[in-house]
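Q: what sequence does this backbone want?
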């Protein structure tokens, strides 16, 4: 049940990320899920590099959302509407 669980958690993290950043989201459900999954990976990487998590530990909710915010900010800056600005 690894991949379905990852997708569900990614969707949850992506939804929390979208709720925490005002403005229009350049993507839809799949993009939200992928950004949430990427945010969780980024949060786990930062947590491991800072010594907060051991190798193999999942990121905490707050750090995963923070990683998702970074991913969404980059996505908005590099997305189709971001290039036109």
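A:
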């Amino acid at each position: 049940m690894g991949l379905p669980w990852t997708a569900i958690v990614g969707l949850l993290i992506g939804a929390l990320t979208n709720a925490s950043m005002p403005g229009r989201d350049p993507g839809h459900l799949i993009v939200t899920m992928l950004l949430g999954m990427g945010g969780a990976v980024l949060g786990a990487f930062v947590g491991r590099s800072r010594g907060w998590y051991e190798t193999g530990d999942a990121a905490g909710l707050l750090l995963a959302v923070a990683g998702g915010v970074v991913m969404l900010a980059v996505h908005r800056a590099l997305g189709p509407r971001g290039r036109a600005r």
